[in-house]
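Supplementary Methods. Inverse-folding protocol.

Structures were first reduced to a discrete structure-token string of length 179. This string, shown here, constituted the complete conditioning input.
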């Protein structure tokens, strides 16, 4: 990616090590119960693939695609469903899998939407969280890393749909998005 990258925040190895720790914690918490992992497209694809394969817990998988209304800023909190779950979550243990929690507005909407469908339980796992950007408080049980409020890319995270496939998380050089 040439000099578009400013710095690496977390290497591939650090990410995979942290995911293994999170998987252990999830396995201990759910002990013997089956879990429905709900991935939020598109960014969560990488976390879902890697985290799910580190779990001993019996899991099934489903996906939602959601988008914010308005000016393209993703923090309006007004969300529409582009692709809904294919599964009925009634009575299931649901674990939402996210790549990043920024303002928390998307997740806050998603949790209340899914809660209204009466799952047995609902928790959240995210690879990254930006505490300084939080606009609402959302209870997140599993957090990979808390990061500063910077523009991050890689490991599912994009800038204009690019860089999602990088195996690490980095920050983008300002010249890329300010030009
Ligand atoms: C990202 C991320 C979360 C949301 C977090 O998705 O996957 O769903 O933004 O932002 P918030 O906490 O401020 O609501 P995005 O809308 O960029 O879509 P993508 O996953 O397809 O990149």
């Amino acid at each position: 990616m040439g000099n578009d990258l400013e710095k690496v925040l977390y290497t591939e190895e650090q990410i995979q090590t942290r995911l293994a720790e999170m998987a252990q914690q999830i396995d201990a918490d759910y002990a013997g119960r089956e879990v429905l992992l709900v991935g939020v497209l598109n960014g969560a694809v990488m976390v879902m693939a890697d985290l799910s394969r580190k779990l001993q817990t019996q899991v099934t998988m489903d996906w939602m695609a959601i988008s914010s209304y308005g000016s393209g800023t993703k923090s309006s909190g007004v969300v529409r469903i582009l692709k809904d779950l294919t599964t009925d979550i009634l009575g299931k243990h649901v674990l939402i899998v996210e790549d990043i929690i920024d303002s928390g507005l998307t997740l806050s909407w998603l949790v209340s939407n899914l809660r209204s469908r009466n799952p047995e339980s609902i928790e959240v796992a995210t690879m990254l969280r930006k505490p300084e950007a939080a606009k609402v408080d959302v209870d997140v049980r599993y957090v990979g890393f808390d990061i500063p409020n910077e523009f991050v890319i890689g490991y599912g995270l994009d800038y204009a749909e690019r860089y999602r496939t990088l195996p690490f998380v980095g920050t983008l050089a300002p010249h890329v998005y300010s030009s």
